[in-house]
Amino acid sequence: MKGGTVGLMDIVIDIAGLVKRFGHATALDSLDLQVERGEVHGFLGPNGSGKSTTIRVLLGLLRADEGSVTLFGQDPWRDAAELHRRLAYVPGDVNLWPNLSGGEVIDLLGRLRGGLDEKRRALLIDRFELDPTKKARTYSKGNRQKVALVAALASDVELLILDEPTSGLDPLMEAVFTDCVDEFKDDGRSVLLSSHILAEVERLCDRVSIIRAGRTVESGTLADLRHLTRTSVSAELSQAPTGLDGLTGVHDLAVEGMRATFEVDTVHLGAALQALGRFGVRTLTSQPPTLEELFLRHYGEEVAS
Amino acid sequence: MTGAMTVLRFHLRRDRMMLFWWIAGNVLLYYSQAVSTDGLYPTQADLDKAAAGMADNAAFIAMAGPARALDTLGGQVAWQASAFGAIVAALMSMFLVGRHTRAEEETGRDELIRAAAIGRHAPLAATALLVVIADALMGALISVSLISYGLPVGGSLALGLAAGLTGLVFGGVALVAAQLVESTRAAYGITGAVLGVAYALRAVGDVGNGALSWLSPIGWGQYLRPYADEQWWPLVLPVVAVVLLGCGAVALFDRRDIGSGVWPARPGPARGSLGSASALAWRLQRGSVIGWGVGLLLGGIAYGSIGDDVADLVGDSQFSKDVFASAGGSIVDSFYATAAVMLSLIGAGFAISSVQRLRGEESSGFAETLLATALPRWRWAVAHLVVTVAGTLVVVLAAGLGMGLGFAMVTGDGSAVLRLTGATAPYAVPVLLLATIAWLAYGIRSRWAAVGWLGLGFCFVVMMFGEVLQLPGWLMDVSPFRHLAQTPAEDFRVWPLLVLLVVTAAAAAAGMVAMRRRDVVSA
Questions:
Q1: B324 in the same domain as B250
Q2: Between chains, do B374 and A107 touch, taking CB under 8 Å as contact?
Q3: Which structural domain range is residue A263 located in?
Q4: Same domain, yes or no, for B233 and B285?
Q5: Residue B250 sits in the same domain as residue B281
Q6: Quick check: B260 contacting A, CB < 8 Å?
Q7: Does the interface ipTM go beyond 0.85?
Q8: Which of A61, A105, A138 sits opposite B265 (nearest CB)?
């Protein structure tokens, strides 16, 4: 980071104006995505919004129709195999060869990626409580996911691409997963995490990109995004408040005697608190917007229609 | 048992095409034996001559069964069709049972059904009923078709009953196997092994004093003596076996949990030795290479064991001359040239299904997982294609080796092993061209891989019926098999082979270019 701008070498994933069509259907419609080195980047969007398609383009499995896509500064379509040495991928729907054991799959994928860290492999199998001797056909969805996660986390790579990696894990294993991603990131490495579980994204991600219908609608740090949304405020005052409804950015105001609750655009929070101060604040609770609210703000219209 | 009928109707709806092809195929197997025997031996004198040549051929008896009343049309049909027809019926029953029991439990679909308001035994009962219906229909249609051809009613009934009941016995074996093990594949393995043992026991028994044949369900059917003074009491044996197997399956079912088997699944290795795409491709395809190789070796031995009695066997009719003499040369050599092409066409089944494996790996999402590693796309494809090419050579050479071995065993002419293997080897090239067509189509679009089967079907029609249907020469010449020297009937020519090789290599390269340019699709 020189001179306040992000250096070229510090951008791991750079997608601009990506378009991907399947026949007449447009899956990605001018999508943008930037992931910087050392960050965990949340990739959010409803089902069918194009998250998996974007990831497949990034992996060089699908060919971009328009736009520019670079991974570590290189073209993922042309240099797929070379780039894949530096990343590990966990698909959302892990399918494994039914007659191979979990251990065999982990070792195969590790070798194809260019080697596994033996110590980490053993540790991860232990932490995820995975039985590597079972045949893949007998694994549940969660256990298949663990196989892919162990194979990915035990390889020595700079980038993890995870497509809804915890959809089959129980809460305990989810916690293990969260710890593993934290440790991975602490080494200065990057993660692209597509997810539906907002709590997980809030907990793990430095920045998020929200996409809808193949287009990026919002991107930034969680703090940035929160700034664009509303904070809910509930206050008990020493005298009945008046004139609060005249404040800019205040919504859903309810005054009941000496009690006021409202939501305020986060940019106008300061002014609203000053106004409250005039009536003598006894107690005050304020809640920052959750990611759910962020999410609903972008998809609420869709739900309504 | 509540709901069994609903489940049964559902099975019939899902399986109607599959049932049609199995049943129609097997009925056609019996019926075509009647037609072709009639064509080969149009007079009683021809039949007598053929019977004299066959009745003491131990290899033939081991292949097909005891030689009875071979001087009658019915006797010939029963001899040629009863063992293979019984195997077809057994395989149909096995696949029906596996598909509706273990496969459903493995995928979890079974839970959906069981969670509905149906009895605990309803899915089992529905599967059993389905197999009974399928085998009854198959047996009945075999009998009806043979009676309609003009064969005696008693013998036709016995032949149909033999096929249907043998099928049912193996349906019972499959139902028991499905309770014992956890995977569909293992259940097929057990049933297939029992079927193999049954076939071998009958082969050894029929060549010897017949005692061992009584231990084989296939032998039970043949002991009905169709068209040779039928005896009916052996019908008791398969009926008792079916009842015992059915009760055994229910008893085992009651002792196990849904989703698991009576025998617990064996664990696999905790550490893997697979280290490359090639190792994985071989691991995934080796069973198929070995299976097809052994199958074609046995098929080759079957043809080879006819020895140099071909002339007797073929008879003097115009039809048989049309079939076997098209290649020119001596009748024995042209017979083996035809046999070599025939076996190679069967071997093309391996080659094309091996290419289709790529499509299967891609659509099931396995390819996506692999291609997200440092494995380049072309190397992934080449790993499978190398197995296709090597496997095709193994399979075609196994057919030639089998013919040579069979021929040498019967005639004592040891040089035949090399001669017939060498004569069959060139046909691997047109087989590879058929596989390459499948590969090229797959390269352009994943789901076009099935085009390879059309190519095989075309070559088959040209070979079997080209002359009879009087297809135009240019159309028949599209089949690559037509351009090779018909070894061993003709001398080997190197040029046609080289041209085919160049065409194959060019098509393979085009397939690779196309495949590297398109999207990888997963389900």
A1: no
A2: no
A3: 230-288
A4: no
A5: no
A6: no
A7: no
A8: A138
- Entry pTM: 0.79
Running DSSP on this structure, what letter comes out for residue B329? S
Q: Classify residue A235: in a domain, yes or no.
A: yes
Lowest mean per-residue pLDDT among A83-92, A219-228, A286-295, B264-273: A286-295
**CA-nearest residue of chain A to B377?**
A81
Structural domains of chain A, count:
1
Q: Nearest CB to A101: which of B183, B268, B370?
A: B268
| Structure tokens belonging to residue A28 | 């990605």
| A116-A122-A126 Cα angle (round to 5) | 140
A163 assigned to some structural domain: no
Q: Which carries the bigger pLDDT value, residue B265 or residue A184?
A: A184
CATH of the domain at A262: 3.30.70.260
Token duo for residue B359:
């499509």
DSSP string, A115-150: -B-HHHHHHHHHHTT--TTSBGGG--HHHHHHHHHH
> Which range of residues forms the domain containing residue B67?
4-254
Mean pLDDT of B463-479: 83
The last residue of one of the domains, among B222, B254, B286, is: B254
Is the CB of B517 less than 8 angstroms away from the CB of A109? no
Q: Would the CB atoms of A80 and B369 count as touching at under 8 Å?
A: no
Query: Do B432 and B369 belong together in one domain?
Result: yes
Query: Of B190, B219, B254, which residue is a domain's last?
Result: B254
Answer yes or no: do A100 and B370 touch at CB < 8 A. Answer: no
**pLDDT at B315 (0 to 100):** 55
Band of pLDDT at residue B230, cut at 50, 70 and 90: very high
**d(C-alpha A232, C-alpha A217), whole Å:** 23
Are B36 and B68 found together in one domain?
yes
Q: Does B495 share its domain with B376?
A: yes
Residues of B in contact with A104 (CB under 8 A): 268-269, 271-274
Alpha helix segments (H runs only) across chain A? 51-58, 80-84, 102-113, 118-127, 141-153, 171-186, 198-204, 222-227, 269-277, 291-304
Tokens of B332: 């024995």
Spatial neighbors of A231 by CB under 8 A, at least 6 apart, are: A263, A264, A266, A269, A286, A287, A288, A289
Of A13-22, A199-208, B144-153, B218-227, give the lowest mean pLDDT range: A199-208
Please indicate, yes or no, whether residues B364 and B439 belong to a single structural domain of this protein. yes
Q: Smallest Cβ distance to B373: which of A84, A93, A102?
A: A84
Q: How many domains does the structure of chain B reveal?
A: 2
